[in-house]
Every structure is written in C-alpha cells, then in structure tokens.
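SAMPLE LOG
Freezer: B-3
Tube label: C17
Construct: single chain, 279 aa
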Amino acid sequence: MQLRNRKIEKKDNESQEEKQLIVESKNMDKKYSDNSRCFRSRGNYVKGEFFKVSRTTLELFLNCPTCSYFKHINGLKNIPSPGWSLNSCVDTLSKKEMDKHRENNTTPEILLNEKLKLYNHPDLSLWQNNFKGISYYDENTKFHLYGGIDNVAINEQGELVVFDVKATSKDENILTKENIFNNGDTYKRQLEIYTWLFMKNNFKVSNKGYILYYNGNKKVDDFNKRMTFRETLVPIELDLSWIDDTIKDLYELLNSDTTPKLNENCDTCLYIKLRNCLL
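STRUCTURE (predicted):
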C-alpha cells in the first residue's frame, strides 16, 4: 500500500510538472505568435495619399528596395538596433555650443578657418527637429520630404552650407572623407538631401557641405569622468543630381503590385535567405 501511494504521488507530481510545462509552452506560443511588435501601426504607404518621406526613408530605399517595400507597404519594422546615446549627447552639446555663439554674435574658429559664419533663422529650431526638419512637398508624388539637420552656416557668397555632427574615437585624425567609414558615402548623401531640401525652399545653397567630427581621445592618462575630443571639419563636395530620380524610383516601387525579390547585396535579405535554407 505504501509503495502504491508513492507511485500515485510520483504520478501526481509528474502530472503537475506536465501541466506547468503545457502552461509555459502556451504562454511562449502566445508571446511569439503575437507579431504586432514587428509591424508598424501607422505610417504605411497608401496609393494616392500623402506620404512622409524622411532622409532615412530614402537611404533605406537606396540600400535595399526590398526592405523598403516590406517596411512601407507591409508595415514590417526594421530589425531594431541599439541607440547611439553618446553620439546623441555630443550632438546636443554641439548644438548648445553653436547657439551660444549665435547669442553672442560670434563664430567658432573652426568655421572661420573655412570662411564660414553660423546662419541664423527663425525656423532653425524647426529645421533641427528630427520629426519635422526642413521640408518640401512634391505634388507629383504627394511625398512630404523632410530631414532634421544638425546645423547650418553661410559662406562669403551668401550660400547656405549644411554641416552635420558626428562622434567617434579613432587614433588617426579625420581630415578627409577617405578617413571616414565607407569613404563617407552615407554621410555625403545625408548632406546632399539636406542641401537639396534647402534648395527646394528657394535658399541659395553651396555645392559643399561639412562633417564636424568630434574624435574621442583614448591617449590620456586619467579619465576622471571626462572625455576630450579632437575637433575637425571635413569638407564634402556635393552632387544633388541623383535625388530627383531616386524620389521617382521610390514612388514607382511603392506603387508596384510586385513584391521585389530578396536582395543578396543586403545583409538583412541575405540573412533571411540563408536562415530559410537551414530550416
């Protein structure tokens, strides 16, 4: 009788463990079957309707039309990545420093060396807003194109000169676009889109932009909760000729009824393809 009771008790314990596993399994199934966190609840493209196109929207399209299609037609979010908190901090502090110069009617020496002065305008804070920025409405596509700039200067010819702030930490000085990752092509396009937006708003613009680099110095003996930076201004020759055609190409993609094939030049598409091969 005692042995039988032990068997019954053991069976009851196993039954409870099985029930717990089933409950956990169902909870896990529910967690991973709810894909809402992977899709955007708003902002998808609808044919014939107003559509906001940010600078990063154009960059995504240039990098991979397939990923662009899935995001803006199907609402599939980009794979999340860590934020750039320290870079954003440097960006904010740089803007504060430039604003103080504007208040005092002075110009940083690094801009004076390039014969530039800080440009002041009532809409500056709007232009620097990442969700509003400098904008332009294209009637042919119904695209509202916009981009939030870091800062803007003016040269001796009265042309606006956009400059963007970047932060990194490299041993060598960053003096030319060749010193920048990927030959600086991504940042060059960024400056070109901002400059194009100013041009579309009837501002006189320069064919040159700048990257204001803050390069963290690791070669110090003491940290003391402070970072020191080498500051350099990298000139970038701009070419705006590609932008109008790119907008047209994006419009054609979003209005196509054919889903693009996976792009093997895209890391995300290649990962999906290889992962499916392993299943």
